[in-house]
């Protein structure tokens, strides 16, 4: 009885090995990794999560599953875009193209305004402006703007911070600035 049990176990192992061989084993799991780059980030995350269940489904069913979720993601994105048009009062696609063009130019203008306000913040104080310009020149030339000061104890100490021109420094007293 013991010998028959050992032979049955051996045969079940052989059958399982043959079944895996006929299915293609795990080699098909590496092929979709190249194809997953065409999906948006959210679908790629789903793909990584569902990869462990691919053995159960099989390669074709798994690919269909991922494709259906990619299609669902695209449809949801399109629905949001159309809802945005509807909220803006747009009723035809010709107006939608004009709306997208104006929206893009507004976003670019908003970005320019935020960059300009950042630069204007430094222009108010002339010493801070010069310091900012020299820092930007160092960054553009590839140098690091802060150079650590070597110490004799073997430990590197941090250089003193220059707080001139930074927002909120006028509220600090001298002792707080030193700390």
UniProtKB/TrEMBL annotation:
One of its GO terms (cellular component) is nucleus. GO terms for biological process: chromatin remodeling; regulation of transcription by RNA polymerase II. Residues 143-179 are annotated as: Disordered. One of its GO terms (molecular function) is transcription coactivator activity. Transmembrane segments: none annotated. PANTHER family: TRANSCRIPTIONAL ADAPTER 2-ALPHA, TRANSCRIPTIONAL ADAPTOR 2 ADA2 -RELATED. This is TAD2A protein. It comes from Agelaius phoeniceus.
């Amino acid at each position: 009885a013991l010998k028959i049990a050992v032979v049955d176990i051996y045969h079940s192992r052989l059958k399982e090995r043959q079944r895996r061989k006929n299915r293609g084993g795990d080699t098909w799991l590496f092929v979709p990794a190249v194809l997953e780059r065409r999906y948006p980030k959210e679908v790629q995350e789903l793909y990584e999560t569902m990869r462990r269940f691919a053995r159960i489904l099989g390669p074709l069913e798994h690919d269909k599953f991922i494709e259906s979720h990619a299609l669902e993601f695209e449809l949801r994105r399109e629905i949001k875009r159309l809802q945005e048009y509807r909220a803006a009062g747009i009723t035809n696609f010709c107006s939608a193209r004009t709306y997208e063009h104006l929206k893009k130019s507004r976003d670019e203008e908003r970005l320019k305004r935020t960059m300009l306000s950042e630069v204007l913040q430094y222009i108010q104080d002339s010493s801070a402006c010069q310091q900012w310009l020299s820092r930007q020149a160092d960054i553009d030339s590839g140098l690091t703007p802060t150079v650590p000061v070597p110490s004799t104890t073997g430990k590197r100490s941090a250089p003193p911070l220059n707080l001139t021109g930074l927002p909120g420094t006028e509220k600090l007293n001298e002792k707080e600035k030193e700390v």
